[in-house]
Automatic annotation (TrEMBL), chain A:
Entry keyword set: 4Fe-4S, Iron, Iron-sulfur, Membrane, Metal-binding, Oxidoreductase, Transmembrane, Transmembrane helix
Transmembrane spans: 12-38, 81-105, 125-142, 163-183, 238-261
Presence of the UniProt keyword Aminoacyl-tRNA synthetase in the record: no
Origin organism lineage: Bacteria, Pseudomonadati, Thermodesulfobacteriota, Desulfobacteria, Desulfobacterales
Protein name: (Fe-S)-binding protein
PANTHER family in the cross-refs: IRON-SULFUR-BINDING OXIDOREDUCTASE FADF-RELATED, IRON-SULFUR-BINDING OXIDOREDUCTASE FADF-RELATED-RELATED
Coiled-coil positions: none
GO molecular function: 4 iron, 4 sulfur cluster binding; metal ion binding; oxidoreductase activity
Pfam families xrefs: CCG, Fer4_9
Species the sequence originates in: Desulfobacter latus
Gene3D superfamilies: Alpha-helical ferredoxin, Transmembrane di-heme cytochromes, Chain C
Superkingdom as given in the UniProt entry: Bacteria
Residue stretches making up the 4Fe-4S ferredoxin-type domain: 297-326, 359-389
Automatic annotation (TrEMBL), chain B:
Organism, scientific name: Desulfobacter latus
Transport among keywords: yes
UniProt-recorded name of the protein: Electron transfer flavoprotein subunit beta/FixA family protein
Matches recorded under Pfam families: ETF
Domain Electron transfer flavoprotein alpha/beta-subunit N-terminal: residue ranges: 24-213
């Protein structure tokens, strides 16, 4: 008896060499795949520029950690582990699948380097990988098809359900695993029967089971299976390859690029157009994203890469509150439009007359985003949303499509430098409050000099209920022995939300005025108690002295001994710290405020389930306070209930906007008297020794 | 359709704190910021929508000093095609009739089918639209909250006391005073204004308009402001002082005391 005949040598019906299939299938498969990819690249070529070749070491790190390491997957434990198994299996089996294609032409083919011990190790690995992937596919199909976790559901307004595609692809993967194992097992069983050759696959692997099952099959059956399974694998492999770019499984190909090119800086906003400086903005014909091709190529790559896992929308506070925004569908609707306007079959390119916000998106959808960043933090593929929202808003602002509720504060910002339309000369009036003014004076850096600038920003300067934050901050800085002052009427709104709401030119004016005033004051550092101001000055402005949040200063000064805290005055309270988005996610300041609170002896502090980089936005700051969204509940109310569930009765935050939203939400939730909201500065100042 | 929209530069009610000046005859205008009268924005927006549908052009006109040019630019950034500034030392101190006289002269230099004004202005008396129509001997509809343009005629809707709506057919040319709420005026950003920053805006004086300088301005005014003051609280009226929280607290107390709560 001889060995089993391989696909490279087999003659179908005794005369037709199957090697012809082995040759044709890859040629057709690769040819078709190349054509499809070329069509998919077509819109990227016509898209706006995007500079993504900077910070290469950081990008390589992301590739290792986010792509290869799948670091974000276990944030959703069950799905994450399944994905890691399938991903690792794919990496391992990619070598096997490629060599299988060649084996169909040349049965002796072995990948260079895999002929010795390494090859033996690899063979064991790939047998177990195929087994694990098959098991993961079965569990994943059960999850998708039977358990149906809520985050995969597609609300009617967003189109059809994607379960069928998901399960179909899991079926394809399972077919690949089974056919590969069966191909191997049939040869093993045949050769064992014929020659007593005992090279069995790895014990308890899929191929091992199959080889045992086939132990008593006839030679003819085994030979037939061997050939059939080879071509089932070959056909499925190339079908899968060409199917990937047609839907949500494109991420199998694009993820490596998408992660490499993902956002590497935090908290900043992309320029209106890469390559156009602030001074050249006036020369631009149009602003922002109005039509599909106005997106940058990376943003289009994002659309291709979306795996439809729904994690972004599951974390999105706007979606949770019932606003008409679900980030997942920002990607999916755009991808559907790309597929429609750049069809594979005809090779034609269609353009739409309508603006994107009249076509696939709605204005309210785009204004609903608080730019909290929860979606981007979560996405395992590094898909961005904030820059897209800002670009779409830039487009709407340019077209005059701004809700009336936002027009007033924007105009006030233009005229008075604050969204309330209050007089510039009253910006530092918070310092004139009687009891404060009796014992404290705050330097006006318009007339005086100091090392440190306290940048107050609009809400803390003008809102009656927030001015206390300014006074407390001043007292803390004073106690910490810092020489500080304020810009007074020279300070304008930081413009953090002006930029994020798409009013670029107004933001540019505010930035220019603040930058000039700050540089003129000659300060060496800037401190603020408003995370939105912190973010703008630190991440959007350029050329300023270093900027810190008051919580960082407090934590540092406690450590150095410059500030000491008295024991907790309200031992019965249970405190919880709410991470403001612009302090936490956008500036990774999670520990300083906690360290400062923990320095108060006897203070009972619990943690929210959603905290640190998974913090849940309170409702948004800056201009978002003026926007009147369509929503079912307020984000703040959801957040207050989360705090109540955590067993807290005092919510401490470190942002004036969070304080406004949470204070209001406590009232709306009917928890007045039971719960209270405090600013960080208030709690700290109350406990300064 | 050729449309003329009459606009006015006024101190912005949302962004100012109004105080009397030392003489007690006017607002203290040192720290005021100005903008387009709110009603006028609705009129311009409505004109843009009509022209978008039917074609034609929009001219915005204002009576004022050099600084009034900014409101013309803002409206041009919104979408008006041309601006005209009626400015002359002789125009200063015009009463409503004087303004209407100047606007009438401007209307007669052009070939307008439709003249729109705001229903009123923040600082005004809501009289110019009506006077202008009368002087031109044009039909007039006030407080218009709906426009359906047609051939030679248009239909205009007016909101009537009690929330009723009436529709009227009106012959062109005509004058309409536009009520807020007729549309949602589009946003004008700094970028829009900069785009029209270089557009020439003709300035017309008394001579250009063929208006007798004596019939307008302070000289021609037949109504004169004789006093300007904050009225004393009348019987039963009371102003609550303090910050917002204090005011609310006092109000709640008062309501409780009177049995309102």
């Amino acid at each position: 008896m001889s060995m089993i005949i391989t696909p490279a040598d087999y003659l179908l019906f005794g005369f037709f060499p199957t090697v012809i299939f082995s040759f044709l299938l890859p040629v057709i498969g690769v040819g078709l795949f190349t054509y499809i990819i070329a069509r998919r690249i077509a819109p990227l070529v016509r898209a706006n520029p995007d500079y993504r070749f900077d910070n290469i070491p950081e990008r390589i790190k992301n590739l290792i950690v986010v792509w290869f390491g799948q670091i974000r997957q276990p944030r959703y434990m069950r799905a994450g582990v399944l994905h890691i198994i399938i991903f690792a299996g794919f990496l391992i089996l990619s070598i096997r699948s490629t060599s299988l294609v060649i084996i169909g032409l040349d049965d002796g083919f072995i990948f260079p380097g895999l002929d010795g011990t390494l090859g033996t190790v690899y063979n064991v690995m790939k047998d177990y990988a195929a087994t694990a992937v098959l098991a993961a596919c079965i569990i994943a199909a059960y999850r998708r098809g039977i358990i149906r976790p809520a985050r995969y559901a597609v609300p009617e307004k967003y189109g059809h359900d994607h379960t069928a595609e998901a399960v179909f692809v899991l079926g394809l993967i399972a077919t690949l695993m089974i056919s590969e194992s069966m191909f191997e097992a049939s040869a093993v069983a045949y050769n064992y029967q014929a020659l007593g050759d005992a090279h069995f696959p790895a014990v308890f692997s899929l191929a091992w089971f199959f080889s045992k099952m086939l132990g008593f099959a006839s030679f003819a059956t085994l030979q037939g299976l061997h050939i059939i399974m080879y071509y089932v694998h070959d056909v499925t492999f190339f079908f899968f390859l060409c199917f990937l770019p047609l839907g949500k499984h494109f991420h199998v190909i694009t993820s490596i690029f998408n992660v490499f090119f993902m956002r590497v800086k935090k908290g900043n906003i992309k320029p209106v157009k890469y390559g156009v400086s602030d001074e050249q903005l006036d020369d631009l014909e149009s602003f922002g994203v109005k039509r599909l091709e106005d997106f940058t190529w990376k943003h289009m790559l994002d659309f291709y890469s979306c795996a439809d896992c729904g994690r972004c929308s599951d974390q999105c506070p706007a979606n949770t509150a019932g606003r008409p925004l679900s980030p997942r569908f920002i990607s999916i609707k755009a991808r559907d439009l790309i597929f429609k306007n750049y069809p594979i079959k005809s090779g034609v390119i269609y353009t739409s007359d309508k603006l994107l916000v009249e076509d696939i998106y709605t204005e309210d959808e785009i204004w609903s985003c608080t730019t909290c960043g929860a979606c981007e933090q979560e996405c395992p593929l590094g898909i961005e949303y904030i820059d897209k929202m800002v670009d779409l808003r830039r487009g709407m602002v340019d077209e005059g499509m701004v809700p009336q509720s936002l027009q007033k504060p924007l105009k006030a910002l233009e005229k008075r430098g604050n969204p309330y339309g209050k007089m510039e000369k009253k910006r530092a009036d918070w310092a004139k409050e009687k009891t404060f003014a009796q014992t404290h004076t705050v330097k006006d850096l318009g007339k005086d000099t100091a090392d440190t600038l306290y940048f107050v920003d609009s809400i803390t300067s003008y809102d009656d209920n927030m001015q206390d934050i300014a006074r407390r901050t001043a007292i803390i800085l004073e106690k910490a022995g810092m020489d500080f002052g304020v810009l007074g009427k020279g300070e304008k709104d930081s413009g953090n939300e002006v930029l994020r709401f798409g009013e670029e030119m107004l933001y540019q004016e505010l930035k220019a005025q603040n930058t000039e005033a700050i540089l003129e004051s000659g300060v060496k550092r800037i401190v603020t108690a408003d995370p939105h101001a912190l973010n703008a000055l630190k991440n959007d402005y350029t050329g300023l002295p270093p900027v810190k949040h008051i919580s960082e200063i407090v934590a540092e000064k406690i450590k150095s001994g410059a500030l000491t805290m008295t024991p907790c005055k309200n031992r019965d309270n249970v405190y919880v710290y709410h991470d403001p988005c612009y302090l936490g996610r956008h500036n990774t300041i999670y520990e300083s405020p906690r360290q400062a609170l923990d320095a108060i002896a006897g203070l009972t502090r619990v943690e929210l389930e959603k905290s640190r980089d998974r913090s849940f936005c309170c409702g948004g700051g800056g201009l978002m306070l003026f926007y009147e969204p369509e929503e079912e509940t307020r984000m703040g109310v959801i957040r207050v209930n989360m705090a109540a569930d955590a067993g807290a009765n005092v919510i401490v935050t470190a942002c004036p906007f969070c304080l406004v939203n949470i204070q209001d939400a406590i009232k709306v939730a009917g928890k007045e008297g039971e719960m209270e909201a405090l600013d960080f500065t208030q709690l700290i100042e109350d406990h300064l020794a | 359709m050729e449309i003329l929209v009459c606009v006015k530069r006024v101190p912005d009610t949302a962004e100012n704190e109004f105080e009397l000046n030392a003489e007690g005859n006017d607002l203290d205008r040192d720290d005021l910021v100005y903008s387009v009268n709110e009603w006028d924005n609705y009129a311009v927006e409505e004109a843009i929508r009509i022209v978008d549908n039917l074609g034609g052009s929009i001219t915005v006109v204002t009576v004022g000093d050099d600084e009034a040019e900014e409101v013309l630019r803002r409206e041009m950034a919104m979408g008006a095609n041309n601006g005209v500034l009626l400015s002359d030392d002789a125009f200063e101190g015009s009463d409503g009739r004087g303004i209407a006289t100047l606007l009438k002269a401007e209307v007669e230099t052009g070939n307008y089918d439709l003249i729109l004004t705001g229903a009123q202005a923040d600082e005004g008396a809501g009289q110019v639209g009506g006077m202008l129509a009368a002087m031109l001997d044009y039909p007039y509809a006030s407080l218009v909250n709906k426009i359906e343009p047609g051939e030679g005629k248009i239909k205009v809707g007016r909101e009537i006391e009690g929330g009723n709506q009436e529709m009227n057919e009106i012959e062109l040319p005509c004058v309409l005073s536009i009520q807020t709420g007729i549309n949602e005026p589009r946003y004008v950003g700094i970028r829009g204004i900069r785009k029209v920053a270089g557009v020439e805006i003709p300035v017309k004086g008394a001579g250009d308009l063929g208006v007798d300088a004596g019939s307008v301005g302070e000289a021609g005014a037949k109504t004169k402001r004789v006093d300007y003051f904050v009225p004393d609280p009348g019987d039963g009226a009371e102003m609550l002082d303090g910050d917002t929280d204090e005011i609310i607290e006092k109000l709640i107390e008062k309501l409780k005391a009177k049995g309102g709560l």
